[in-house]
Design a protein that fits this description.
The complex is a heterodimer.
Chain A: E1 7-15, H1 20-36, E2 42-53, H2 55-70, E3 74-78, H3 82-90, H4 93-96, E4 99-100, H5 103-115
Parallel strand pairs in A: 1-2, 2-3, 3-4
Helix pairs in contact in A: 1-2
Chain B: H1 2-8, H2 10-22, E1 27-32, E2 37-42, E3 54-61, E4 64-72, H3 77-124, H4 130-145, E5 147-154, E6 163-166, H5 182-194, E7 198-201, E8 214-220, E9 228-235, H6 242-287, E10 299-306, E11 314-322, E12 325-333, H7 337-357, H8 363-380, E13 385-393, E14 398-404, E15 409-412, E16 419-420, E17 439-442, E18 448-452, H9 454-457, H10 468-479, H11 484-499, E19 508-515
Antiparallel strand pairs in B: 1-2, 1-4, 3-4, 5-6, 5-9, 7-8, 8-9, 10-19, 11-12, 12-13, 13-14, 14-17, 15-16, 15-18, 18-19
Classes of the chains: A alpha/beta, B alpha+beta.
Chain lengths: ~120, ~525
C-alpha cells in the first residue's frame, strides 16, 4: 500500500435520518476513491460541530467504518461532544470506533498505521 | 319507383284520370318502361280501345326512362300540352320522393351508427384488459367509419418502438405482426408522433404505393400511460367527408375515455393488491410476536409493538423458561418496511433456535450464537440490529442481561433514580466475533425494567424537538407503581400526545418488567 494522508470529513449539526444518507454516501465516496487509488481508506471524521446523532446517523458511521476496514483502513472520530459521547457509549460504539481527543491525534494515528 | 308513386298517391291519379275521362278520353293509363300496365282507368261506355288514337308522354328521371302516361281517345295540341304538363308535375313528385327517401336512409344510417357506438361502449365496459377493448374498437370502428383498414398505434414512436393493432387481423393479445412497407411504417410512426388530427390524400405517389388513397389520423386523447393514435385508411366512399371525420373523432374520444377507465381500474387493483399483501404481511409479523404474557413468579411482564408502517423491523419476545425463569428480548433492525421485517423474522428464528437448543442456557452464548449465524446475512445487506436480551430468575431475584448496542433500556429500582443500562457489546452486524458481556442487576418487588426501541426517545413533535431519554427516565420514576401493561400504555399515550399531528416516523416497541411479590 502506498502512503498518503488520511481523508478528513467534517460533519456538523444534527446527524439524523435526513442527514444520514448524505454522510453515508460521502463516506462511501471516500472509500471508493481510496480503492481506486489502490490504497487503504483511512478516514478521519471531525465531530466537533455535531451536537446530536440518532440511530440512522450511527448506522451511517458504522457502514463507513466497516467499509474502510475492508480496505485495511479505518474511520477515526475526534471532537466528540458530551451528548454524542453518551449516545456512543449507550450503544457500545465508543469501543467500536477509534476515538481521539484532537484532530492531530486522529490524523497521526491514521498516518502512523499507514506507514507502519 | 313509378309503381310506388302510383300506389302511394292513388287518389291523386284517380282524380287526374277522372279529369281526362270527363274531357272525353276513353282511357287513362300509367305504363312502365317495358309497356307493362301499372294502372288503368276506362270510361263507362268505352269502345274498342285498340282502334282508338292514343297520346303518350314519356316519364324520365335523370336520363332514365321510367315509363309513360297514356291517354286513349283524345288528341290535339291542347290535349298534348296538358299531358306534358302533368308529366312534368309527376317529375317534381318523383324528385321530392327521391330526396325524402335518401334523407330517410341517411337518418337510418346515422341512427345505426349511434347505436353501434352505444353498443361498442356497452360491450367494452365488460372488459378489463387492453387487448379485447382495442380489438372491439378496431372491428366496430372500421364498420362505423366505412374504411378499408383501421390501425391503432401505441407507445413512444421514437426508435420505432410503438406497438400496432390492425383491425383486419385476428384478435390477439400479442402485438400484431405488421406487414407494412418501410415507407408506410415511417409515415404512420411520423403521424403517430405528430399527435394532430390530419387528413392526408395520396400519401404515396407512384412508384412506391398507390393503393393507399387517403388516410385520416386521429390522436386518442386522455390521461394515458402512452400515446395512442387511430389511423383510418381508404374510405369506401372514396373520400373522408365531414360526418365520417366527426364520427372518427367521437370514436377516438370514446376510446380515450375507455383506456383512461382501464388505467384507473388497474391502478386501483394494484393498490388494493398491495394493501392486501401488506395487511397479510402485518398479520404474519404480528403472529411472530408473543400473543400473551407468560406467567412467571415475581414479575409482571408486558410487551407491545406498533410499527410505523404496515410492517417493521422491531421485535420482542417473552419466553417462559420455567415457573421462576423468564427470557425476554427486544431488538431493533435498522431500516423500515418489508426489508426490515424480513430481517426481523430471520433474527427471531436464530434467537429462538439458540434459546431452545443450547444444552446449557446462558444469554451471553445465546447472543453470541445469534450474532455468528446472522453476521454475514446482515453485512451483505448493510443492516444492523441492536438486541437486548435479559434472563430473570425469581429464586435469585436477579436479572442477567446482555445488551448488543441497544438503547434505551431503563432500570428503575424501587424508590431510586432511574438509570440507563448501557450496552455491553456491539449491535449485530458491526463486527465479526464481537465481544459481548453479561451484567446482572437485582430485581425484586417494585423494581422496573423498561426496554424500548428508539421510536420512543426519538419521537419528534411539530417543532422538531425529540422526546429524548431524560423524559423517559422521569416517566419511569413516576410510573413505577403501576402494573406493567399500564406503564406501557401511559408511555405510548405520552408519545402520541407529544407528537401532536406529527406522523409516527419509526416503529415503537416496548417491553416492561415490573417486580411483584
Amino acid at each position: 500500500m502506498n502512503h498518503s494522508d488520511p481523508s478528513i470529513i467534517r460533519l456538523e449539526g444534527r446527524i439524523d435520518a435526513y442527514q444520514a444518507p448524505m454522510v453515508k454516501s460521502s463516506l462511501k465516496d471516500l472509500v471508493a476513491k481510496a480503492e481506486n487509488e489502490k490504497r487503504s481508506a483511512w478516514i478521519v471524521a471531525d465531530l466537533s460541530q455535531v451536537n446530536f446523532i440518532d440511530s440512522a446517523g450511527l448506522s451511517a458511521l458504522v457502514v463507513g467504518l466497516k467499509n474502510a476496514r475492508e480496505t485495511g483502513g479505518s474511520l477515526h472520530l475526534f471532537g466528540i461532544q458530551h451528548a454524542v459521547r453518551i449516545i456512543l457509549e449507550l450503544s457500545w460504539l465508543d469501543k467500536a470506533f477509534p476515538t481521539f481527543n484532537s484532530e492531530l491525534e486522529a490524523i497521526e494515528a491514521a498516518t502512523v498505521k499507514e506507514t507502519a | 319507383m313509378l309503381n310506388k308513386l302510383v300506389f302511394k298517391n292513388r287518389s291523386l291519379f284517380d282524380s287526374m284520370a277522372q279529369a281526362w275521362l270527363d274531357s272525353g278520353a276513353q282511357a287513362f293509363r300509367v305504363l312502365t318502361d317495358t309497356q307493362k300496365q301499372i294502372a288503368s282507368w276506362q270510361a263507362d261506355q268505352a269502345e274498342q280501345l285498340g282502334q282508338q288514337e292514343t297520346m303518350s308522354a314519356p316519364i324520365k328521371m335523370g336520363g332514365q326512362h321510367l315509363g309513360s302516361l297514356d291517354v286513349v281517345g283524345l288528341n290535339g295540341q291542347s290535349n298534348e300540352t296538358r299531358l306534358k304538363e302533368e308529366v312534368q308535375l309527376l317529375h317534381k313528385w318523383l324528385t321530392v320522393e327521391q330526396e325524402v327517401t335518401s334523407l330517410t336512409n341517411e337518418l337510418i344510417q346515422y341512427q345505426d351508427q349511434l347505436l353501434m357506438l352505444y353498443e361498442l361502449r356497452q360491450t367494452s365496459r365488460r372488459y378489463l384488459e387492453h387487448a379485447p377493448i382495442i380489438a372491439n374498437y378496431l372491428h366496430t370502428g372500421r364498420k362505423l367509419l366505412r374504411v378499408e383498414r383501421l390501425i391503432l398505434i401505441r407507445g413512444v414512436a421514437d426508435d420505432h418502438q410503438a406497438e400496432w393493432d390492425l383491425a383486419d387481423l385476428e384478435v390477439t393479445t400479442e402485438p400484431a405482426e405488421i406487414e407494412l412497407s418501410p415507407s408506410r411504417e415511417t409515415l404512420l410512426l411520423d403521424v403517430h408522433r405528430h399527435r394532430k388530427e390530419t387528413h392526408i390524400q395520396q400519401p404515396f405517389g407512384p412508384p412506391d404505393d398507390e393503393t393507399w388513397q387517403q388516410i385520416f389520423v386521429l390522436p386518442v386523447q386522455g390521461q394515458l400511460q402512452e400515446p395512442v393514435t387511430l389511423i383510418a385508411i381508404n374510405p369506401y366512399q372514396g373520400r373522408f367527408n365531414t360526418p365520417t371525420k366527426k364520427m372518427g373523432m367521437a370514436l377516438a374520444d370514446l376510446l380515450g375515455s375507455e383506456l383512461e377507465r382501464l388505467a384507473l381500474h388497474q391502478q386501483i387493483l394494484t393498490q388494493a393488491r398491495q394493501e392486501t399483501e401488506s395487511a397479510m404481511a402485518r398479520d404474519v409479523q404480528m403472529r411472530l410476536l408473543p400473543r400473551q404474557s407468560p406467567s412467571i413468579q415475581g414479575v409482571d411482564v408486558w410487551g407491545m409493538a406498533n410499527p410505523a408502517r404496515q410492517v417493521g423491523g422491531d421485535y420482542y419476545d417473552l419466553i417462559e423458561m420455567g415457573p421462576n425463569e423468564l427470557f425476554f428480548t427486544l431488538a431493533d433492525v435498522s431500516g423500515k418496511g418489508m426489508a426490515a421485517a424480513l430481517s426481523m423474522a430471520n433474527l427471531r428464528s436464530a434467537l429462538r433456535t439458540a434459546v431452545r437448543l443450547l444444552p446449557q442456557f446462558d444469554i451471553q452464548t445465546v447472543l453470541h450464537q445469534t450474532f455468528d449465524s446472522l453476521y454475514d446475512d446482515f453485512t451483505d445487506v448493510e443492516m444492523f440490529a441492536t438486541i437486548f436480551c435479559g434472563y430473570y430468575n425469581h429464586l435469585k431475584q436477579t436479572i442477567y442481561y446482555s445488551n448488543g448496542g441497544h438503547s434505551p433500556v431503563i432500570y428503575c429500582p424501587a424508590g431510586q433514580p432511574a438509570r440507563m443500562l448501557k450496552a455491553n457489546g456491539p449491535a449485530l452486524g458491526i463486527m465479526r466475533d464481537a465481544p459481548i458481556g453479561c451484567d446482572e442487576i437485582s430485581f425484586g418487588p417494585g423494581d422496573l425494567i423498561l426496554a424500548a426501541t428508539d421510536g420512543f426517545n426519538e419521537a419528534e413533535n411539530l417543532e422538531g424537538e425529540m422526546f429524548g431519554i431524560d423524559r423517559l427516565l422521569t416517566l419511569a420514576e413516576q410510573l413505577n407503581h403501576y402494573p406493567a401493561a399500564m406503564i406501557a400504555k401511559i408511555l405510548s399515550d405520552e408519545i402520541l400526545h407529544f407528537r401532536g399531528n406529527q406522523p409516527q416516523q419509526d416503529d415503537q416497541t416496548i417491553v416492561v418488567l415490573k417486580g411483584v411479590t
